């Protein structure tokens, strides 16, 4: 392999400082701003290795006969080339939510610039953004239900934009920054997972949930009830499932009711969903979607027959 690697470096005219990655499906996507040499081990590894790079980013591919040609990330991922042994990516400035001016935060800084920014973005407040945050959340749920990764990726981006925008509003008000948001959730995840980052033990999801609740109670001693913090704006089924879960994890498990009252019967069904590790809200949404599709098919058939 070393002989083959030396030959690829020679024909591609690479310097010794190029980063070397063998692109396998288990390989972590490389993050480097220098020259990157990818030795292709499998197609899924290649896709994983290239996913941080813009689709139009130029690269060189080295084929099995040591030929070198210019290409782009998009062409490689779409299979324009075949039978090549390596890909060489030239230096690039990688951007994420932490980077400015090219990252998401940098773009938001421009949008919220009071002089040269966007009038719509500059007019927003935390309150005015509430319906947009809710809508984007439901669009993420729709994308998950559709099972379309590309659609989910796009909708998660829209939802992330809401987080970045709220953080920018807070930063301009002197309250907190996007870095504070990121560090806050990082620290919380470490604190609430002592079985991963410390010496705690929890080898089942239910044990993890119980430990999470105990740690949460310890961090928030001023809460009067284990139910504090469950949003009242949640849809009723989702809120019922959350409350039932918190009650059970804190020693207040609900007993199934024999009452004929509709609300109690609905709660029984939500409890049944919890007991079988299902989300009542999602189950009902899926059943409703199937019912809706059946009606639309019947309507289409009726139109065809008329």
Tell me briefly what this model is:
The chain is α+β, with helices and mostly antiparallel strands. It has helices spanning 2-12, 43-50, 73-77, 104-111, 119-123, 130-146, 149-172, 178-191, 194-197, 205-219, 236-249, 262-275, 280-305; strands at 19-23, 36-40, 58-63, 68-72, 84-89.
Please report the total strand number as a whole number: 5
The average pLDDT is 82
Output the number of helix runs: 13
Structural class: alpha+beta
Strand order of the largest sheet: 1-2-5-3-4
Amount of beta strand: 5-15%
Distance between the termini: 70 Å
Structure commentary:
It is a single chain. With 306 residues, the protein is α+β, with helices and mostly antiparallel strands. It contains 13 helices and five strands. The protein has helices at 2-12, 43-50, 73-77, 104-111, 119-123, 130-146, 149-172, 178-191, 194-197, 205-219, 236-249, 262-275, 280-305, and strands at 19-23, 36-40, 58-63, 68-72, 84-89. Strands 1-2-5-3-4 form a five-stranded mixed sheet. Helix 4 packs across helix 7 (149-172), helix 6 (130-146) packs antiparallel against helix 7 (149-172) and helix 11 (236-249) packs across helix 12 (262-275). The model has no long low-confidence stretch (mean pLDDT 82).
